[in-house]
Design a protein that fits this description.
Elements (H helix, E strand, L loop, with lengths): L1 H22 L9 H12 L1 E2 L20 E3 L6 E5 L13 H8 L3 E2 L13 E3 L22 E3 L21 E3 L23 E3 L11 H6 L6 E9 L23 E8 L6 E2 L1
Parallel strand pairs: 3-5, 5-6, 6-7, 7-8, 8-9, 9-10
Antiparallel strand pairs: 1-4, 2-3, 10-11
The structure holds 2-acetamido-2-deoxy-beta-D-glucopyranose (4 copies).
Length: about 270
């Protein structure tokens, strides 16, 4: 009896010790080998003239690398923010513009990215991917809540695989000089948690379902369609196309529509 009691007392102490070290952060686990490898492969395929990824070295703890955020509990990479640290103010020959140009990453996005299975936040904005396609495999990063490819100079048709990102809250595909295209928006209807959608400067001419799908996204609060190219307002199911006011966009708290239409008229609602 006595020995059982001392065993359980010891167990309690052990547990308290475990809890206290857990709470004081002593449980820091650091980067996992497979995720470090994935990041190093990613770096290998990127041109990085300003050495933004200088801290990404073989055998390092990738949780301490620039632009990488890990979970303190599991050591898994949660955030990868490769956003250009400088703002593109579009005033050529200013120092800020030069800094912006110099800080652009370019090259390819290595498919090893999908080994970062716990990634919730991916920001590649403001870099220069020089007209390569948006990689289809981004669609397998199922935990993503935030994806920002704004001004990253991807080109071509948006891969419908992005519709598999069912946890996405924020999707920004705006301002590519190459005018990304969408042929159908049916993939977007899988993103039922999406709150913020920016498709500015996109060519929507072929996507006759854009209004129907966007109008049916249940969580959407912010919609930005500035400078989009569109030739027609597609028919709504009710057959009531008298004006934009007839759309049920009431759940959207912020909306910018600014279309380049074939007819040459502009619609702007803010
Ligand atoms: C992880 O721990 C570091 C250092 O203690 C702290 O600065 C950071 O905010 C923590 N991150 C999270 C996501 O809790
Ligand atoms: C995406 O990144 C750009 C900067 O590169 C920023 O201006 C924009 O607000 C970001 N989009 C969202 C939705 O956070
Ligand atoms: C997307 O999901 C579909 C069906 O759930 C699956 O067949 C497809 O392989 C997935 N694509 C990606 C890129 O994960
Ligand atoms: C069109 O919608 C408006 C606003 O909801 C409504 O007042 C009007 O009666 C509708 N017209 C037709 C023909 O359904």
């Amino acid at each position: 009896m006595k020995s059982t009691m001392s065993v359980s007392v010891a167990l309690v102490f052990l547990e308290l010790f475990a809890i206290s070290s857990f709470c004081s952060g002593n449980s820091y686990v650091g980067c996992t080998d497979s995720e470090r490898e994935a990041l190093l492969k990613l770096k290998q395929d990127l041109k990085d003239p300003s050495n933004r990824l200088g801290s990404w070295v073989v055998d390092g703890d990738c949780c301490k690398w620039a632009e990488v955020v890990c979970s303190n509990l599991t050591g898994h990479v949660l955030q990868l923010s490769l956003r250009n640290p400088f703002r593109n103010d579009l005033r050529y020959a200013t120092t800020e513009y030069e800094d912006y140009m110099r800080s652009m990453l370019s090259g390819n996005v290595n498919p090893s990215l999908v080994d970062l299975k716990h990634l919730t936040h991916l920001d590649l904005s403001g870099n220069d991917f020089q007209g390569i396609r948006i990689p289809k495999y981004l669609g397998s990063l199922k935990n993503l809540r935030y994806l920002n490819l704004s001004g990253a100079e991807f080109a071509g048709i948006i891969p419908h695989q992005l519709g598999n990102l069912s946890n996405l809250r924020c999707l920004d595909l705006s301002w590519s000089e190459y005018a990304l295209q969408v042929h159908s928006f049916s993939w977007l209807s899988g993103l039922s948690l999406l709150e913020h959608l920016d498709l500015s400067q996109m060519n929507l001419n072929k996507a006759s379902d854009w209004l129907l799908v966007i109008n049916s996204l249940p969580s959407l609060k912010v919609l930005k369609l500035s400078d989009c190219e569109i030739h027609h307002f597609p028919p709504l199911p009710s057959g009531n196309y008298s004006s934009l006011n007839a759309l049920d966009l009431s759940k959207i708290i912020f909306i910018t529509l600014f279309f380049n239409t074939a007819a040459g008229f502009l619609v702007s609602v803010i």
